[in-house]
């Protein structure tokens, strides 16, 4: 073999041996963690959202609140990030004290759910416990609803005005569709608030109105189980707002200010941020090393630190 050919072969071998290996194919990004997230950005006022740290409430938000609520399995609490016009917070929410509702339409074909309790989640589907009006047997039912179709209970009055008030002189079966299977029973002698919405042959479609939390049943019943009521009954819903004395102190900062709460298990824990330029009521002297702040009813007061306040631009 000619000397030039040998050199060429050796050069080729060296090149192949030392050529960098092609880059490994990029691994796909891990899929987002499965689970149940209930998201609410509704501008309508909500009743309240209590945030806890190790079982103690450090903030109770009401009015215009947006939040993400993460439900895991059958855990009694959910992890929440919440925001109102003052602060961004993170904490736990006791599910048995917090009500949700489906975004629209009938649930299971016959329930108008205004407020239900999340009793757990499997994947991205939540299991809801719905309390029915007192005139219905059973008193509660469980229904499954996709988590992305749930939101919080807001201050909206349900529509009581449509239909004719009726009484229930005898027990009767309820069906989601005319002639369909029985889903529940209407009890006789109960003080039910019931409106007949339409009549179809020997069947009537009725709305049985729940109390307080506004869970209603919308179903078909034999028309001969009803009779016209001599008078109408109604529920009142009202919200009062008190005006108290102006706060003695307040704190604010031109940039975001960390908010803390103290846990018996974990010591000082940052639970959120006061928004830049926002003023919040201080419950203790702002000159102290820590300053308790007002974030609604609480058993564990949140606070900001004096050292952080001192860094605020003057």
Task: Outline the secondary-structure elements.
Blueprint: H1 3-18, E1 36-40, E2 46-53, E3 56-63, E4 66-71, E5 77-83, E6 87-94, E7 99-102, E8 111-112, E9 116-122, E10 125-131, E11 136-137, E12 140-146, E13 150-152, E14 164-167, E15 172-175, E16 182-186, E17 193-200, E18 203-209, E19 216-222, E20 227-228, E21 249-252, E22 257-263, E23 267-274, E24 279-282, E25 290-292, E26 303-305, H2 306-310
Antiparallel strand pairs: 1-4, 2-3, 4-5, 5-6, 6-23, 7-9, 7-13, 8-19, 9-10, 10-12, 11-16, 14-17, 14-20, 15-16, 17-18, 18-19, 21-24, 22-23, 25-26
Characterization of this structure:
The protein is mainly β. Among the domains are: 164-228, SH3 type barrels, CATH 2.30.30; 249-310, SH3 type barrels (Roll). The chain is 7% helix and 45% strand. The chain is built from two helices and 26 strands. The protein has helices at residues 3-18, 306-310, and strands at 36-40, 46-53, 56-63, 66-71, 77-83, 87-94, 99-102, 111-112, 116-122, 125-131, 136-137, 140-146, 150-152, 164-167, 172-175, 182-186, 193-200, 203-209, 216-222, 227-228, 249-252, 257-263, 267-274, 279-282, 290-292, 303-305. A six-stranded antiparallel sheet has the order 1-4-5-6-23-22, with no helix packed on it. Strands 8-19-18-17-14-20 form a six-stranded antiparallel sheet, with no helix packed on it. The N and C termini lie far apart (85 Å). Mean pLDDT is 81; it is low at 5-33 and 232-245.
């Amino acid at each position: 073999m000619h000397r030039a050919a040998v050199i060429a072969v050796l050069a080729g071998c060296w090149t192949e041996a030392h050529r960098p290996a092609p880059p490994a194919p990029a691994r796909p990004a891990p899929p987002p963690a499965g689970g149940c997230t209930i998201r609410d950005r509704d501008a309508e006022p909500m009743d309240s959202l209590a945030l806890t740290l190790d079982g103690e409430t450090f903030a109770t938000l009401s009015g215009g609140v947006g939040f993400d609520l993460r439900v895991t399995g059958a855990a009694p609490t959910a992890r929440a990030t919440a925001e109102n016009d003052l602060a961004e917070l993170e904490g736990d929410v006791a599910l048995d004290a917090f009500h949700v509702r489906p975004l629209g339409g009938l649930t299971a074909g016959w329930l108008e759910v205004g407020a239900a309790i999340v009793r757990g989640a499997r994947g991205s589907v939540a299991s809801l416990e719905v309390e029915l009006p007192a005139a219905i047997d059973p008193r509660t039912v469980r229904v499954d609803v996709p988590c992305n179709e749930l939101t919080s209970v807001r201050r909206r009055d349900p529509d009581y005005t449509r239909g004719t008030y009726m009484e229930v002189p005898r027990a009767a079966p309820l069906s989601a569709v005319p002639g369909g299977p029985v889903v529940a029973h209407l009890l006789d002698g109960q003080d039910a608030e019931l409106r007949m919405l339409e009549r179809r042959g020997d069947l009537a479609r009725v709305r049985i109105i729940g109390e307080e939390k506004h869970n209603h049943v919308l179903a078909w019943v034999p028309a001969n189980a009803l009779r016209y009521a001599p008078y109408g009954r109604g529920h009142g819903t009202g919200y009062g707002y008190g005006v108290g004395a102006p706060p003695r102190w307040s704190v604010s900062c031109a940039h975001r200010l960390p908010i803390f709460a103290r846990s018996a298990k974990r010591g000082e824990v940052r639970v959120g941020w006061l928004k830049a330029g926002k003023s919040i009521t201080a419950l203790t002297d702002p000159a102290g090393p820590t300053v308790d702040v007002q974030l609604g009813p609480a058993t564990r007061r949140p606070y900001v630190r004096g050292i952080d306040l001192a860094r605020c631009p003057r």
